[in-house]
């Protein structure tokens, strides 16, 4: 055993791997030994984050969208990642599949029906509209377009682009300190371990939050189809199945497991969304989507910048800030992965495939699933309110599917899609975490050590299980905010660094 740990210790960067690993392990142990104390501590931290950093999350997210637009139209857009002679490692279809499935995780499946229902039944006070009304339907659609469109993908794209340019065009180390070297200069390596350590902590929290949502949705679906399965063992069994699958997939490498599973997942998304669009209330989906998008255009700046009554409202903190924090928690480590596979693409092409097209896909998906949910909810708001109260948000999509029809086919298909989605997204997360933890990582080889993938995968799964067991969907939100806070400061710094590169690309590239 002693020899094993010595080999393990030689493999990892001690000040990157051990601090977040020990801290998160301690949190898991405390949650099991003193669950009430753990929940109180997490709730207090969550309240502090929302009270003091709500505006910072919103403003940073908004300016990242502006940065995407600025880079897209700037001279930096024509630069090729890796140099003029660099050639891509993946086809455009494989690349887009990996990018999309890495970033959406289970979010669009879990929240596609659940989130708009919350806004429909309980619109915020600042909107001054009655609940369960046509007006609240339009507001609900505009809200999910805001939370699942161009803003979240800007949160991913900016750090990913900065990482790609740093490691391939400026020959910087594979570290999250490299994208901010234009600001730190020669002092950047000094802060490398600290930054990487903090971001590892953030991603474990973000991945655990996403996994928690996936576990709730899968167990809700299994319990809906087969009530006999409802037991205390169902959640740990589903958790174990997901963890095992994504560790095995990640261990098979990017060129095999991750790429192939992403393509399967992408086509599954397309087929499933088309099935719901064709079988569901198609006309109403289109009308509501158009109305929601029109509403979003008018309310985008006030909602994004928390103007007027929106500022620090309960709705803003529970939804907008929660979403921005969740995306930010994933963003730094995911950026390492997305940057790593961007070799050979121009900056403009990178933003097209990492920002614009994924955002368009998510808007279409949310229009289909959100529109279907809002249509059926407007027909029977009392039933949906009771369902949300008694069965939880994970039950909503299954109710919508049963109302559409062909539930015996669509519900199992949705559960499979949920399972594959998280496995695909977690693949890249564990791959990036393992890469960042290693002392020696070869960009040419791409794949990292399997032992580290297993280690991080197990910790993510255990933390997710603990939070949903003791706090349910509130636990998912608390994990998102906890992971998003440290990432917030790094992303703001990366964004400023990218502006420096954009103004003088020839100097930095």
How would you describe this structure to a colleague?
By secondary structure, the chain is an all-alpha fold. It has one domain (99-508): Up-down Bundle (Amino acid/polyamine transporter I), CATH 1.20.1740. 80% of the residues lie in helices and 0% in strands. The protein contains 19 helices and no strands. The chain has helices spanning 2-11, 14-33, 35-73, 92-104, 107-121, 134-147, 150-169, 181-184, 192-225, 234-251, 254-279, 282-305, 314-340, 347-379, 381-391, 396-404, 407-437, 450-503, 505-508. The longest helix is centred in the C-terminal third of the chain and has 54 residues, at 450-503. The mean pLDDT is 82.
How much strand content do the residues show?
A: under 5%
Uncertain parts = none
Rg on CA atoms, Å: 22 Å
Percent helix, as a range, is over 70%
The CATH class label is: Mainly Alpha
Count up the domains.
1
Count the beta strands.
Answer: 0
* Biggest sheet statistics: none
Concise structural overview:
This protein has helices at 2-11, 14-33, 35-73, 92-104, 107-121, 134-147, 150-169, 181-184, 192-225, 234-251, 254-279, 282-305, 314-340, 347-379, 381-391, 396-404, 407-437, 450-503, 505-508.
List the helices and strands and how they pair.
Elements: H1 2-11, H2 14-33, H3 35-73, H4 92-104, H5 107-121, H6 134-147, H7 150-169, H8 181-184, H9 192-225, H10 234-251, H11 254-279, H12 282-305, H13 314-340, H14 347-379, H15 381-391, H16 396-404, H17 407-437, H18 450-503, H19 505-508
